[in-house]
Amino acid sequence: MSEAKRLHPAAILFNLIKTVRELFVVIIAGSISFWDNWLIFVPITAGFLILFLIIAILTWYRYTYRVENNELRIEYGILIRKKRFISKNRIQSIDLTSGVIHRIFGLTKVQIETAGTGTDAEASLSAVKLAEGKALRQELKTAEPTQNLDENAVHESEEAAKPSQTISFKRLFIAGTTSGSVGVIFTLAAAGLSELEQFIPESAFNSTMNWVIGFGFVIMIVLAVVGLLLLWLLGIAGTMIKNGNFTITKNDSDLFITRGLLEKKQLTIPLRRIQAVGIQESIIRQPLGYVTVFAEIAGGSMDDKEDFSSTLFPIMKRDEVESFLKTFVPDYAGIQQEPTPLPKRARKFYVFRASILFVILTLATGFWIPQFIWVPILLLAGSMGLGIWRHMDGGFRLDGDHVIIRHRSFSRNTVMMHHKRIQAFEKKQHKIQGSQQLATMRLSIIGTMGTGTHFAIKDLEESLTDKLADWYSRR
């Protein structure tokens, strides 16, 4: 790969889409301004599209890449020529992503991340042949470059013999039905409808509302249930499309994750970048015995706009976790034990924090609209129950060079960290906590983009907090 290469011509389309997306607001504003005057609107729109197409073609033509002297060398820029050299030794991960358009043409997008990667990937090749993308990944991840694609195929056959686990359709369906994404979709739908409302003629909106109200209270409830059911089905479909064919494979010092039905992603996670491994149990999945295994990864970028944590496996039974950890992240196996619980005298603080806003809401509702006092009372009871639940689930445990902490917001999270991965320890204590001999401790590790990820347990026994401080300081 020492000869300079250009991206696949399909990159012109991606460049055009990117330009239009970045100027979308300006285009819409201009369209509204000149909508009534077609003699001006059509020529200007056509002129801008031609200009954007020319820029996209020139951007593709001027973009070249090659691998030379253990470096990935990229040259780009239409008027101002830029060169970027990325040493193999600095590369942390190489991810392959194939969207719908990519898969039609047999292409992939190659994203290269280094330890200094910020909000964007260090380098991104928007469209290369899939076989070439795999060969490039193999060449940049090894000390000696591969000679041809046949050797890369041999490597892939060897990789196939490595430990691997794929999600079944049954588990994928359970993940969709218990994902809780219906709440997110409902919020987005409500926000979209509220924005859409201003474009609907008032007469049409009023007639529709009168038509719905005319059905009566029972019919409105039925429509609401049907709407929630549709949102729930959309949530299931979204989860299955995102995590379809989810497969994790371990190859020496790297984990390879492949997932997606429409957009196929191939993620690379070096084991040395894993800062912590966690087990998440949502309110819905916990009674059913299902969990999600995730990892906190150092470095990386936000190009995919996803959570800062990487899902190692979307759903599995709680008793399957230990075997999974032994296979894929053995450094975190054999340390799952029940943590030391929080002291009983800390419960009142958890209940207070969870319910204080609803106490105020209840008082305000009782003063101004007492006929609806039952609504905040129900919310208050639920928040107090959540506070008790959080207190019951909180705790930590030391196990040699590992610390296990467990906490709950809505989902229960058990996080396992190695001593050498912890960047900072902090103990906080206000006067009321001091009088109760309680304290709050916070552990920090390196997260996405090099920023800190923090895990805190509030109202822990002060003596245990000091014990953890001694363990962290090696005293």
Automatic annotation (TrEMBL):
Keyword Transmembrane helix attributed: yes
Entry keyword annotation includes Phosphoprotein: no
Record keywords, A-Z: Membrane, Transmembrane, Transmembrane helix
Superkingdom as given in the UniProt entry: Bacteria
Pfam family, any one: bPH_2
Domain YdbS-like PH: 60-139, 246-326, 393-472
Residues annotated as signal peptide: none
Transmembrane segments: 12-32, 38-61, 172-191, 211-234, 350-367, 373-389
Protein name: PH domain-containing protein
Organism, as annotated: Lentibacillus halophilus
